[in-house]
What we know:
By secondary structure, this protein is of the alpha+beta class. The protein has helices at 39-49, 196-202, 275-279, 294-313, 326-333, and strands at 4-19, 57-70, 74-79, 83-88, 91-96, 99-103, 108-111, 119-124, 157-161, 168-170, 181-185, 205-211, 215-219, 236-237, 242-244, 252-254, 261-262, 266-270, 286-287, 289-291, 315-317.
Amino acid sequence: MNLRAVLEVLSPGAMASIQDRGRFGWRRIGVPRSGALEPGWLRLANALLGNPEDAPAIEFLTGGLAVRALQWPLQLALAGHFTAELRYTGGRRRIASWRSVCLAPGETLHCGSIAAGRVGYLALVGLVVLRHFGSASTYARAGLGGVDGRPLVPGVRLSVAAGGGGERMLWRPPAVDEAAIRVVAGPQDDHFDVLAMPTLVGEAYRISPAADRMGIRLDGPLLGHRPEKGAEIVSDATVPGSIQVPGNGQPIVLLADGQTAGGYPKIATVISADLPRLAVMAPGQAVRFAAVSVAAAEEAARARQAELQALLAGIGPLVEPGEHDPQALYTANLISGAVDATAADGSPMSAYHLPGEP
Length: 358
């Protein structure tokens, strides 16, 4: 018999919702992809639990998510640059992200503010959510997916699999990459004056407070339209990553919940490899852009996939702070970091040259 546990949402924080990798193939009828703003982190959270990589999870913005286990123990995993606090009868303890953890009935988990960026994930084993158009992702503007098609609210209860298991962690969490966000020019870059593209890729912008799952408005130098072209076009297709520029000259980058068509000219498109990095940036963060070719964008997509596979391969048994880290012992201390005690200067010992050997 498979026991079912219940996870209760005590506080959703800001804009917490159920997301998976999104719904594909429906943009022709006006249904956006939706899905995780950082699909790689969603995959990492699911991998920490042994879930299918496309399993739905809770995505939250800025922090403040708090949940409680009811009835039976359950296991969850955290991904994102934040810490959380586990509270139980008679105590509490802080835990880092990028790991799994088991909650006993009555225990609560409180996610803190996100230290870098604005997005975090909480994955669960056996989360059951109805799918619409092939996805459990919440698209609140149309009431699709998730719980009643809307962001999570206090008191929502989610049915998950009961049980625990060996806890796991990500040995090397993803680093914060501050490199320029790469874009491909077009498809309407000819609607802008000669200074617009050099300005976009040569000046710094900031993420404005007007940033949600639909898009991000950027504060910075204005981008001018050519007078004879105007600031509007006949509505045509958009994609996540499209950089629209309305009449006020301030660019808008569309994200996962972005509309499928629009009437503002698009000066460029953020490449798929860099869009998650932009989507998780917090209001106030500075961002720079760099123009690349389509071929370079394709190569970047392959490189991102390889980096993600390397991170997935780096998941192993949990090591609590203060405990011995066997991976560090085997890869650093015993192989490359050992000191040759017989050497007069105490120089490091080569892994291929043991004392007494020629």
